[in-house]
UniProtKB/TrEMBL annotation:
Stretches assigned to the Ketopantoate reductase C-terminal domain: 188-304
Protein name: 2-dehydropantoate 2-reductase
Keyword Ion transport appears in the UniProt entry: no
Enzyme class: oxidoreductase
SUPFAM superfamilies in the record: 6-phosphogluconate dehydrogenase C-terminal domain-like (SSF48179), NAD(P)-binding Rossmann-fold domains (SSF51735)
EC number per UniProt: 1.1.1.169
Function: Catalyzes the NADPH-dependent reduction of ketopantoate into pantoic acid.
Organism: Pseudomonas weihenstephanensis
Phylogenetic placement of the source organism: Bacteria, Pseudomonadati, Pseudomonadota, Gammaproteobacteria, Pseudomonadales
Ketopantoate reductase N-terminal domain residues: 17-164
Length: 317
């Protein structure tokens, strides 16, 4: 029996999970896959990051009271190992450049799983790599970095994965199952990503502009409602009627259910981190422009947010 074959579709050859970006989400996925016995390789930015990682002797996953150090293999983009399955766990604004750095290593039938929030970065990567199968993901899991190479699994949630092109669910979903990664195959992943984008657009920027927790938006109901109306029209115009269904109600339900929380964009701004606005309000506004649809509230929101970020010395793209 061959121990290694050149084609990765062989039943005998385990396909390693290459994980590009060892931040919160990348580490969370890497740790669970590795713990379940699957081959994982972290792809770190450069030699200096690789040395720092090796000095730490692995990734640490903190889950409640438990803390485990996992000596997961790591490499730089320049390594020569072919990549057949790539999980992209960078921020939306870094994803395309990061993938370009390893594009020459992708096998002809490579699969790429894109974990980015919002929309736009996934399509850019799919366009750049027409031969790869790009699977888009939407996650409600939560993780944050407590320090370099140390990640806290903060919020249990679920992952939806899907191919915007028609196609069967990949066999490796079983590996997610065995790794305890809660997931399902979505037949309409774009609808799910649009819905999440719309909810993010209705809540996150306003919490930044009003400097409040999600619950603080109860005092700005008219502003939220005006955004939801425009976002619903936009979703319908983009042929995403399911994503538009009862958007306003769900946004208010989320505001109520998470009233004590700070939105992720609020946390990013408070900590001086770049936001993903180009892939949220920026993407929504571009979509409206290309459809010649007037969305004055959404446009004004994006402009106010940009001005606010620039004022704080943060990029507005
Ligand atoms: P993060 O900033 O913690 O991690 C991103 C990592 O990518 C960083 O370690 C960065 O150094 C690395 N990176 C960037 N460019 C790289 C390159 N060229 N080569 C190698 N590594 C590179 O971000 P995150 O919180 O894990 O978020 C990733 C995506 O997942 C975002 O789009 C985010 O919105 C989404 N998301 C995050 C959470 C969460 O709880 N953290 C939840 C749902 C969705």
């Amino acid at each position: 029996m061959p121990t290694q074959t050149t084609t990765h579709t062989s039943l005998h050859t385990p396909i390693p999970w290459h994980i590009l970006g060892a931040g919160s989400m990348g580490a969370l996925w890497a740790a669970r896959l590795s713990r379940a016995g699957f081959a994982v390789r972290l792809i770190l930015r450069n030699q200096a990051r690789l040395q720092a990682y090796e000095a730490a002797q692995g990734l640490t996953l903190v889950e409640g009271e438990n803390c485990v150090l996992l000596p997961i293999a790591a490499q730089t983009p320049e390594a020569d190992e072919p990549i057949a399955r790539l999980l992209v766990a960078c921020k939306a604004y870094d994803a395309e450049t990061a993938v370009a750095q390893v594009a020459h290593r992708l096998t002809p039938d490579a699969e790429i799983i894109l974990l980015q929030n919002g929309l736009g970065s996934q399509q850019a990567i799919a366009t750049r790599l027409p031969h790869a199968r790009c699977i888009f993901a939407s996650s409600t899991e939560g993780a944050f970095r407590e320090g370099d190479w140390r990640v806290v699994f903060a919020g249990h949630g679920h992952n939806w994965l899907g191919d915007p092109q028609p196609g069967a669910a990949p066999a490796w979903l079983e590996e997610l199952q065995r790794s305890g990664i809660s997931h399902e195959w979505s037949q309409n992943i774009l609808s799910r990503l649009w819905r999440k984008l719309a909810i993010n657009c209705a809540i996150n920027p306003l919490t930044v502009l009003h400097n409040c927790r999600n619950g603080g938006l109860k005092a700005h109901r008219l502003e939220v409602d005006a955004l939801c109306t425009e976002l619903s029209t936009l979703l319908e115009s983009c042929a995403q009627p399911e994503a538009a269904f009862n958007l306003n109600d769900e946004v208010h339900r989320i505001i109520d259910a998470t009233e004590h929380n700070y939105a992720s964009m609020h946390q990013d701004v408070a900590q001086g981190r770049r936001t993903e606005i180009s892939y949220l309000t920026g993407y929504a506004n571009h979509a409206a422009i290309s459809l010649q649809l007037a969305v004055p509230h959404l446009q004004h929101l994006h402009q106010r947010l940009c001005a606010h970020l620039l004022h704080r010395g943060l990029p507005c793209n």
